[in-house]
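HOLO CASE FILE
Compound: NAP
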Amino acid sequence: MLKAITWGANGMAGGEVLRILAGHPNIELTAAVSRSKATQPVWTVHPHLRPDFPEMTFVAPEEALSMEADIVFLALPHKASWATIKEYRKQGVKVADLSADVRLKDMAAYKEWYGQEHPAPELMEEAVYGLPELHREELRGASLASGVGCNATCATLGLAPLARAGLILDARMELRVGSSEAGAAPSQGGHHPYRDRTMRVYEPFRHRHLAEVIQECGLPASAFTMTMTAAPLVRGVQMLAQVRLSRKAKEPELWKAYRAAMERQPFWALSPARPGHLRLPDPRLVLGSNRALVGFSLHEDGERLLVVSAIDNLMKGAAGTAVQCANLMLGLDETAGLTMKPVYPA
Ligand SMILES: NC(=O)c1ccc[n+]([C@@H]2O[C@H](COP(=O)([O-])OP(=O)(O)OC[C@H]3O[C@@H](n4cnc5c(N)ncnc54)[C@H](OP(=O)(O)O)[C@@H]3O)[C@@H](O)[C@H]2O)c1
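Model generated. Tokens follow.
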């Protein structure tokens, strides 16, 4: 078994990395890192994993740094990850990051979207954007995979096939998201009486994850807007994109563009055209799994298209994709540990 250390292991995405590793055939968790929970049993934070890690306790960062590892998962907040990435890369250890610290290739874009100069631009030379659906060959054997934004993942998997076929003039995206996106720490907006059953709209036009969609779709910022809605979900992201096509299209051409992009993709698929209620995907159909679903509907004018995509933010949008990257980086079967089925209905 290969050895993995997970940082931010008491958090939302880190906990999901632990859940995946608990069933991974080739990678075992050797340390779960947390500053605030060090020495406490892992199952006190993740009670659903008690049978899998009955004896394991969280370890402090200083202890973790001297432990042996084949791969390190960093589920730390933005701007808290880069220094630990540097430390591990100095030791020659492979890193699958989950934060935003090495996602953007363009340092000017990083400054624009994250409000400061990138503290370690040299890391970008070896970082591969951690979305296997678009960067599989670069990830094989790579040493550093970036995290992916959960909203960015949902949007990119919905739009990249059209963008790459030169079919997008512009796209107005609405993202509906669950509360687990905000992490495990309580906040006023996330407190149950205010967050439950909400349909709160926020970050009109310009959510930060747009920077990744621009990068991965290869279109100018002026082609996109991304507005968020906090929806009454714990897990799940759904994107609705109103796309104006760059030219008139017919349905078969669109099916073809999507099918070509999704060929030999273990976790990325189109929704069925019929029955109608399954054509545009609901996040409920992927919850707990590493799957992404995409559906579309062409307006009768042939110029406007509604694209809907759905993922589980903690899986395809974070931990699932990070483990998929790690599998590729370590030369394992890409799907190892990730074949769990969605929970439905949930
Ligand atoms: N939640 C999602 O749906 C999602 C999706 C995609 C990507 N991500 C990314 O995954 C990362 C973790 O997100 P999350 O939602 O899991 O957050 P979270 O629940 O808040 O967990 C982050 C953990 O990191 C540790 N931490 C906090 N500040 C730190 C610091 N300065 N240095 C070292 N450790 C620190 C904390 O544990 P201690 O204080 O105990 O050390 C905390 O539990 C973020 O970068 C996020 O953008 C999350």
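CASE NOTES: The longest strand covers residues 168-177. The chain has two domains: 2-148+316-329, 150-312.
CLOSED: yes
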